[in-house]
């Protein structure tokens, strides 16, 4: 019954949850990181739109999602095997979180897009490395 009531409240969100669960069910570590990057960039772009369109609840939800993903990415860095790359990524994630939180106080979408663009470049590099 809870599933049906959730579906009636927000069918799009229910679909997203089912889709994400399906994509993560059999994904290995690198594939999960790629999914996190994709979800993160999407959350930031939606936050930008929401900020500019005064959709405060949507912005808040997407900012929360983006910061949670940034924490997850940072928490799973392997500093022993990753060395300087892990240190650099930790700094990047921390700085991105700070930018996202500061941007959440305003109505300008550009800071969200800037962070998304930077992280999209890393996501593309990650995607290329996985394909090689």
From TrEMBL:
It is found in: Cytoplasm, Cytosol. Belongs to the FliS family. PANTHER family: FLAGELLAR SECRETION CHAPERONE FLIS (PTHR34773). Gene3D superfamilies: Flagellar protein FliS. It comes from Sphingomonas olei. This is Flagellar secretion chaperone FliS. Keywords: Bacterial flagellum biogenesis, Cell projection, Chaperone, Cilium, Cytoplasm, Flagellum. Pfam families: FliS. CDD domains: FliS.
